Amino acid sequence: MSKNNINTKEYKFGLSGTKKKIGINYWRFFFNGVETISGAEQMFFVELEMVNPWLSPSEVLLGFKPRVKLTADDLQYALAGTQSAQNLNTEQIVQPSYCSLRVGMLGKVSKQLCYYFPIKDCVFNMKPFELQIGNKCFTDNKISGFLSLSQEDNAAHPELLSDSGYATWDLSYEIMSQSLNGYDNANMRWFPHGLNTIFTGKVSFDGTDYIVDTRCCNGYVERFWGLNTPEPWFHISTSSLSSEITGKTLLNSSFAIQGIFDDRVAFQGKFEDLEIKFSADSSKRQYTAIWDCTQMPEAENPEENLLHWSVSLNNKTWVLDIDVYCRIKDLYNRKLELPDGSRKILNLLEGATGYGEIKLYKHIGNTLEQIEHAKLTKVVCEFGQNEDGEI
Length: 391
Hints:
Blueprint: H1 8-13, H2 15-19, E1 24-35, E2 41-51, H3 72-80, E3 98-106, E4 111-117, E5 123-126, E6 129-133, E7 136-139, E8 142-149, H4 151-156, E9 165-177, E10 183-184, E11 188-205, E12 208-212, E13 219-226, E14 233-238, E15 241-243, E16 254-261, E17 264-271, E18 274-278, E19 288-295, E20 306-314, E21 318-327, E22 332-337, E23 344-364, E24 367-388
C-alpha cells in the first residue's frame, strides 16, 4: 500500500478502526529518556487503545469485573431448591467496551499506569489533527498528559490491570523514516509509520524526571487495528544499530518486525539508503519466514537467564537473519484484555533492553553477498499469547 493510496490521518490514527463496533485499535509510541540526576537511560511507552468502543459509547465496560462471591446461605437455598442454581452464576461475562490510555516504562524498572474512558469523551479535530481526552492530548507532532492511580484505588480495582503511581509527559516528535506497508487484510492492519522517530521533551514518573532528546530517543511509532490481536504476538523494533563491518553508527537505519500474520512475520526496515520490506499480506510464494521465541539454557547466575527472539527471512533478492536476546529479569509481564471478552487476555512479555545482531545478504546469482552485519541495542522485544485471564 503506497502513501498515495491512504489518507494521512487514516494511517496515523486509523479513524476507520474507531468507527467499527467490534475490534481493537492501537496507537503506540516508544522512546528513551535520561534521568536528570543519575543519567540512567529508561525506555517509555505511551499507548492509546480502543476496544469495541461503540458497544458502549458513553460508559466504560470492563470484562474483568470482580467475581461474585457466594455465601453459605446462597448455596443452602440452591440445595433446598428455593433458588435456581442458574441464578448463582459466580461470574458476570461482559464483552468489554472502552478506550484506554497507558503510560509505562520498560527495562530493569518496569510498570504501567492505565486510565479508562468511553469513546464519547474523545474530542477530535481534523484540521489540524488533534485528539483530546481531558488533559491528555495527541496530535501529528505532540503527545502530552497526566495520569495517576493511588495504591488504595489500585488495590480495590485489580480489574484495571494497572500499577499505582503517577506520570506526566510533554513531548514533541518528528517521524524521520516511515513505512505504510506493514500488513493489510480485511480483518487486520499494521502500519509501522514511525520506524525512526525523534522525540524531544520531558517525562516524569513517580516524581523522577527524565529528559528525552535526539541523543538517546530511539523513538518508534506504530498503528494497529483489527478484529483481534495477532496470535501469537511477536514484535521486535529498534533504531539503535552500529555496523560490525565499518564500525560506524548507522544513524539512518531502523527496522520493525511484527506478527504473527498468516504464519509469518512482517518486516519493514531501512539500512541507510536501502529500504527493505517483507509484507505478510503478500503471496506465500513471495518469501519464507522462520521465527521463534525461546528461553536459552539456564545460566550459572539466574539473573543472566535470557529469552531469545530469532527471525530468518528469505526472498528472491534478500536474506535476513536476526537474533535478539533480553534478560528475563528485565521483561515486564503485562496483561491486556482482548475484545472478545470472557476474561480473555493477551499475556505479554515485554522488554526494551534487548541486544543482538542483524545480518543482511543479497542474492547474486547462486551466491550470497553480505551487505550489512549490524550490532543491535535498545531493542523493544515482545512475545505474547492469548489466554484465559485471572486477576
